[in-house]
Amino acid sequence: MWTHRHLLGIEPLSKADIETVLARAVRWHELNRKPEKKASVLSGRTVVNLFFEASTRTRTSFEIAAKRLGADVINVSPAASSVIKGETLLDTAKNLVALRSDAVVLRHTSSGSSEFLARHLDASVVNGGDGAHEHPTQALLDAFTIKQRKGKLDGLVVAICGDIAHSRVARSNAILLGKMGAEVRLTALGTMMPVRADVLGATVKIEKRLEGAVEGADVVMMLRIQTERFGGAMMSTTREYSRTFGLSAAMLARAKPDAIVMHPGPINRGVELDTRIADGDRSVILDQVEAGVAVRMAVLELVLGQPSS
Ligand code: CP
To answer: Does ligand 1 come within 6 angstroms of the Cβ of 128?
Structure first.
C-alpha cells in the first residue's frame, strides 16, 4: 500500500514503494503509446509546476503527465512572478495552494526545499530536483527504463560516471539501485567525488578511473558536469576531462556487449559522452525521456491518493 502524501526523495521510499511506482507506470506507458492518451483519474485536481531552475524534460513531462490524467496544470515561472519583488518561496507556494491547488511540483536550487514546503503546505509536494540533494522522479524513470531493457534491477552492475558530488541524479539513483539489489559503481574526477560517497548506500563501490567502473557493466550512466553548482576550477580543461572521463567507443567496449548507455540530459556532447554513442543503438536516452511521462503519471496518481483499479 502506498502511504506517502509527498514524494520528497528516494531515501524515504521502501523497495515495495518503488515497485509500486514502477508497476503503475507500466499501465501509463502503454496508454502513452496509444493515439488517444487521456485518462480521468485526476479529473478536477490542480497541479502547480513551480520551477526556480531551468528545466526542459522534468517540467514538460510533469505537465503532460498531469494533463493526461485529466488534471488542470499551472506553470509558474519565478522570473515572471512576484518572486522578483521579494516574495519568499513559502509565501509563493502558500498563495498558489490558496488557489485550491492539490499538488506542487518544486524544482529549487536549495537542498531540502521540497521537504520544507511539505511541512508547511496543505497540498502534496513532489520534488522535481532540490539542489544537489535528490531528483527522485529521475531515478524512478531511470529504473523503469533499465527494467524495460534488462527485465530486472536486482544483480545488475550499474556504473554512474561523472560529476557525482554535485549530482542529485547520481544520489537518487545510487540510493534506489542499492535498495533494488543492483551493484552501483561510482566514478568521478577526485574534485567531483563526494568525501563521504559511502553514505549513498552499502552497495556503492568507488572507482578512481572510468575504466574500472565501466568494466563488465550492464548499464553505463553518464552525468553532466554541473557547472552551475560550482564556480569552475574543478578540472583543467573540458578536453582533458573528455579524455579521462568521457565515454568513447573504446571505453564502452569494456562494458558487457549488451550494455545500455544512459544520460539524464541535458548532454554536453563531446564532453562526457561521444556524440556517436549518444545517438547510437545502445543509447536509451530518449527512452528515459519517454518513461518520464509514465513515471510522473504514476507518482501524481499515487501522491494524490487516487490509484485507479
Ligand atoms: N533530467 C532533467 O532533470 O532534465 P531537465 O533539467 O531538462 O528537467
So the answer is: no
Q: Is the CB of 112 under 6 A from ligand 1?
A: no
Nearest CA to ligand 1 atom 1: 264
Mean pLDDT of the chain: 94
Residue 230 has pLDDT above 90, yes or no: no
Q: Give pLDDT tens digits for 276-307.
A: 999 999 999 999 999 999 999 999 999 999 54
3 state SS of 293: helix
Q: CA dist 229 to 76, 206, 232, 234, Å?
A: 23, 22, 9, 11
Going by alpha carbons, the residue nearest to atom 3 of ligand 1 is 58
Residue nearest to atom 4 of ligand 1 (CA): 57
* CATH assignment of the domain containing 90: 3.40.50.1370
Top mutation candidate among 53, 56, 130, 290 for ligand 1, by most atoms within 8 Å of CB: 56
Tell me, in angstroms, the distance from the centre of ligand 1 to residue 200's CA. 21
- How many Cα neighbours within 13 Å face the side chain of 93? 28
The pLDDT of residue 238 is: 85
The answer on 154 and 77 residing in a single domain is no
Q: What is the pTM of this model?
A: 0.95
Q: Is residue 58 within 6 Å of ligand 1 at its C-beta?
A: yes
| Position 35 in a domain | yes
Peptide bond before residue 266 is cis, with ω within 30 degrees of 0: yes
* Domain interval for residue 190: 136-285
Q: Is residue 163 part of a domain?
A: yes
Do 97 and 145 belong to one domain?
no
How do residues 183-208 score in pLDDT, each as one tens digit? 999 999 888 888 777 767 667 999 99
In sequence order, which residues have a C-beta less than 8 Å from that of residue 276 and are 6 or more positions away?
Answer: 249
